[in-house]
Amino acid sequence: MNSLHIELKDIAGEVETLTGNVSIDEEQMVLMQERIDLGYKLLKKHAVQSTNELLVIQQQLSKDLQASLDIEEEITATEKKKEQVYIQLSATAGKLSAARVKYARTFSAEVNKLLHLVGMPNAVFAAEVKKKDQPGELGMDDVQFYLDANKSGKPLPVHKAASGGEMSRIMLSIKSLTAKAMHLPTLIFDEVDTGISGEAAKQVGILLQNLSRYHQVICITHQPQVAARGSHHLYVYKLAEKNKPITTRVSVLKDEERVVAIAKMIGGEEPGQAALQNARELMA
After folding, report:
1. Are 114 and 177 in contact (CB under 8 A)?
2. Would you place residue 98 in the very low, low, confident or very high pLDDT band (cuts 50, 70, 90)?
3. What is the mean pLDDT of residues 101-105?
4. I need a surface site. Which of 68, 116, 131, 192 has the fewest CB within 10 A?
5. What's the rounded Cα separation, in Å, for the pair 36 and 50?
6. Would you list the DSSP string of 5-22?
């Protein structure tokens, strides 16, 4: 115990000597404590666990600050780039506009020819190209389709002037002219044969068949001249079973079934030999 007491006195003497040589700066101590407190606050504020993570955030904030200081130069550079792009846009839009104006009359004439073939002999279709003040996603033109269905001299926008069946035939005519340039997987026509028969129905069938070379065409029809042009036939019918709700069914017709279905369009539910022969001739 005496030996340990002597050693502890020696240690205590050395500590007093070292303490006497240490200069404590109270102001520096306060500053260090404030820095530590700030560090803890920043860790909590940014939801991180280490000083290294705080340093990464500091670097990113420095970059953002520098970017904001250089914003005027960036705005000036972007404005110059915008002017150059606008010049290119205007030139391209101008070429597109000139092409539209050039072909609008020819396009309208071709559509009118087809409309006369498909049972709209009095229809006058016109494509009108008007320039806009500013170019948009479709160029610097406002293109409108107009229709005068009965030569009234008062053409209206197509969507206001055409009935459902007329609209289908107009779209069929337009798509027939633009089929090669269009990228549509499937085209569906309903009521395209409303109010037509004979030669007009035949021409509709020919247009649909030609269109099917470039797209899948689905056509709902009651005209034998149109149905006979199809490469596949789906027969839609209602099925009424006892004590069950009426359901709609679809069956795929093959070979002679197709002939019979088209013959029924010609001669009724029990077609005769003449109707069957006519159906075969139409399909041939």
Report:
1. yes
2. very high
3. 92
4. 68
5. 13
6. HHHHHHHHHHHHHHHHH-
Classify each residue of 112-130 as buried b or exposed e, where b means 16 or more C-beta atoms within 10 Å of its C-beta: bebbebbbbeebbbbbebe
* Alpha carbons 207 and 189: distance in angstroms, whole number: 12
pLDDT tens-digit readout, 198-246: 888 888 888 899 889 888 999 998 889 999 999 999 999 899 888 889 9
Give the per-residue pLDDT at 22. Answer: 77
Which of 148, 105, 156 shows the shortest CA–CA distance to 127?
105
For residue 2, the one-letter residue type is N
Contact status, residue 97 vs residue 148, Cβ threshold 8 Å: no
What is the Cα–Cα distance from 104 to 32, expressed in whole angstroms? 81
Residues forming beta bridges with residue 63, ordered by sequence position:
none
- 20 — pLDDT class (breaks 50, 70, 90): confident
Predicted local distance difference test score (pLDDT) of residue 124 = 92
Domain boundaries, the chain: 73-231
Task: Report the alpha-carbon distance of residue 120 to residue 183 in Å, rounded.
Answer: 27
Residue 151 is predicted with a pLDDT of 80
Q: Can you name the CATH fold of 73-231?
A: Rossmann fold (3.40.50)
Whole-angstrom distance, CA of residue 231 vs CA of residue 236: 16
User: Alpha-carbon distance 149 to 224, whole Å?
Assistant: 26
Picking from 165, 172, 181, the residue whose alpha carbon sits closest to that of residue 207 is: 172
